[in-house]
Design a protein that fits this description.
By secondary structure, the protein is of the alpha+beta class. It has one domain. 34% of the residues lie in helices and 17% in strands. The protein has a 5-stranded antiparallel sheet. The protein is elongated, with a radius of gyration of 22 Å.
Length: 186
């Protein structure tokens, strides 16, 4: 009677096919995850832009302090991460919100997310910026910029990171990095 099982060659072929599929699929999966992070940041930017307008209606000015706004993530008022450990979500001066916590950590120790802040430049031009931070391997380095006086959000890549340039060209709907719009901040 013949043994019924897999030969070593058959097993190696299956392992090789799985490895090839994983090598092809992994970068696509990482880009998908990054697009989801970017979408979360865009929702936060839109919400906080509206909160800034409500603040300006009542106080006749904008603010750079997160805690003064009426619609902020619950973590703004939490001094520590949601699991009860680690560093808070706000910078020590209350002006930068870290979407994944780790305000006082080094960038390599921080979870992948965004450092979101309000900036006033050139005496009255306000912007919301979301700098991509975190992750020990630093695959993505870009900034999302939304001028208060504009309805568009701009993606400004670090030109030394190819993946960031590709992410921003995709986000901005252009074909080449040369077509990316300039940073709207002066």
């Amino acid at each position: 009677m013949k043994n019924r099982g897999f030969t070593l060659i058959e097993t190696l072929v299956v392992v090789l096919i799985v490895a090839i599929l994983a090598a092809v699929g992994w970068p696509s999966y990482q880009r998908f995850i990054e697009r989801m992070r970017m979408a979360d940041a865009l929702v936060l930017i839109g919400t906080e832009r509206a909160a800034q307008e409500r603040y300006r209606l009542s106080k006749h000015q904008y603010t750079k302090y997160w805690a003064k706004l009426d619609a902020v993530p619950v973590e703004v008022h939490s001094p520590i991460n949601t699991d009860g450990s680690g560093k808070g979500f706000l910078s020590s001066d209350g002006t930068v919100f870290y979407t994944r916590g780790g305000a006082e950590l080094d960038d390599a120790e921080r979870k992948p997310g965004f450092a979101v802040k309000f900036e006033e430049l050139d005496g009255g031009n306000w912007f919301i910026t979301a700098d991509r931070v975190g992750g020990a391997w630093g695959r993505y380095k870009y900034t999302l910029v939304r001028p208060f006086e504009d309805t568009r959000t701009f993606c400004i890549p670090d030109l030394t990171h190819e993946d960031s340039v590709l992410m921003c060209t995709d986000f901005m709907g252009v074909d080449t990095p040369e077509e990316l719009p300039a940073d709207p901040r002066p």
